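Chapter review: from sequence to fold.
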Amino acid sequence: MKIISALVVAAATASSAFVVPSTGSSAVASSTRMQMGLFDFFSEDARKEREARKQAEIEEQERLQREIIERRKNPEKMEEYEAKVKVRRALRMAGEDEMATKVQMFGEKKE
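The token string follows.
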């Protein structure tokens, strides 16, 4: 019986080596939040961000579509567009691909 109680006391003292000492206060809350990867995909903030990006892309596509329709209805704008196409194609044929990418075809804003 003394051997069993000695083993229990030894096990209890040995296991205290793995206990984190208490500082007297409970857990400290951090004001920063870590992004943990896969599970952040399901968070409310991530969902709102994805929806905002999707909506912005839809609005941009609709704007470009309205511009195309307006250009097709207006002969002057269509002539201007065709002239830009000719310039861009000529630059590409001349091997000036970088200059051809700088030709503004639509109402896009180049930076």
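Two observations follow directly from the output. The mean pLDDT is 77. The chain has four helices and no strands.
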